[in-house]
Structure formats: C-alpha cells, structure tokens
Q: What sequence folds into this?
C-alpha cells in the first residue's frame, strides 16, 4: 500500500517541536526509553527524535516509519543511535513480523496519526512477547470543554499536521485492547506547538499475564 507523504510537515517538524523538546519532552523521552530492553520495535519513528535516547539494554532496534518524507529524515539520523537499527516503511498495522517478536514496543507522539487506533493497538499486542512492555508517550484527549474543542478542531488540524488527531483516547484504547496500564503519568507538554496537543500521558502497558515480569 502506497503511503501518504507530508514533505512540508516533515521539513518543519523538528523546528516546530524544538521548544517542547527543550522544555522537558526530550527528558521524558530519555526516561521512558530507559525501560527499553532486548529486541525493540518503535512505531512511527518520525524524524528520529528517540534514537539518541536508547540505552545499552537494547540489542536491536526496528524502526517503522510509513511516511516517505519523515523516513528520509530518519535515515539521515541513524548514526545517532547506539543499537543497530533497521528501518521499515510499513505501518504497525501492516508490519510483516511474526507474533511475539519483540521484548519492547515504543510509541511516542505516534498513535495520534494512525488511521485506526484500535487496529494499531491490536497489532502492538500481537508482536509483543508475553512478558514484554509497551512504552508510550502520547498526547491525548483532554477532559471536559478542552476535549470538545479538540474534537471540533481535529478535522482541520489533521489536514495540516500530517494526519494528527488531537482527540484520541489512548488509554481507553489500550485497556479495550486487553492491556493493563501499570504506570501512567498525565502531564501537559510545555511549549507545545499548539494547545490542542498539550495534554499528554506517559507510561507502561503490559498484558496482565506479563504484569509481574
């Protein structure tokens, strides 16, 4: 399946998100990824903002990036990563990996762009080993009136922001998909590009059978 390219969005992405990264988002990436281990799958690797944060406990990193314009920038950053990296152009829903292939799956500011959130969560569950962990850092739908504003703005916002949906209920989708969220921190992304994408969550999810691993 031919993937949609967003060249302007890709060209501006690092510049637009740089204030948020400096204001604490980069540190959150580092702390989240300190829990990655073994064979790791990162979905929607974007321009490669996570690459320099992977710890020595990662043996091999498989990065998925279906957007050709984003993937071009990701490929130019591979030397920033400590572990060996292979890049695939598939989305998580289409990734040709066997079941139980990865010790860790990572998603940072990615689930907002997948066409079908439930299908993406199911695909993560399929490739994750029974004792594996899903590490996530995502902007999410806010409660109350701000959430209604996000929902109203999303049709226009998604057209200018690479398919981003500002009103995704990530935690609800994970729990509906059978995951147990074993730790979760709700926070506001400081200096986010727009207030629509400031409400966020960071945490770890597992299947109940692997909760004690």
A:
């Amino acid at each position: 399946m031919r993937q949609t390219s967003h060249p302007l969005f890709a060209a501006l992405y690092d510049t637009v998100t740089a204030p948020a990264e400096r204001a604490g988002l980069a540190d959150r990436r580092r702390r989240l990824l300190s829990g990655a281990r073994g064979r790791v799958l990162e979905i929607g690797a974007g321009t490669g903002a996570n690459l320099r944060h992977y710890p020595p406990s990662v043996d091999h990193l498989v990065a998925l990036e279906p957007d050709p314009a984003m993937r071009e920038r990701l490929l130019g950053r591979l030397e920033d990563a400590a572990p060996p990296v292979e890049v695939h152009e598939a989305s998580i829903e289409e990734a040709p990996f066997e079941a139980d292939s990865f010790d860790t799956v990572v998603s940072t500011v990615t689930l907002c762009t997948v066409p079908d959130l439930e299908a993406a969560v199911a695909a993560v569950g399929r490739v994750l080993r029974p004792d594996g962990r899903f590490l996530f850092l995502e902007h999410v739908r806010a409660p109350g009136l701000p959430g209604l504003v996000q929902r109203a703005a999303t049709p226009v916002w998604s057209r200018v922001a690479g398919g981003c949906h500002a009103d995704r209920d990530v935690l609800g989708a994970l729990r509906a998909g059978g995951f147990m969220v074993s730790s979760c921190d709700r926070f506001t992304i400081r200096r986010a590009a727009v207030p629509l994408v400031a409400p966020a969550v960071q945490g770890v999810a597992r299947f109940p059978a692997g909760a004690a691993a």
